[in-house]
Amino acid sequence: TSRLPSKRQPATPLPPPCRRDAMSPAKPRFLPHLPADFLAELDKLGKPVTVVFYGDHLPGIYSSASADDGNSLALHQTDYFIWSNKASGTQGNKIDNAEYSSPNFFVAQAAEHMDAKVSPYLAFLTEMHSKISAMEPPVVNNIQGWDRIPEGQNIYLNSKGEPMAEDDFDAETRQLLADYRLIQYDITTGKNYLKNTSFMTLP
Question: pTM for the full model?
Answer without folding.
Answer: 0.75
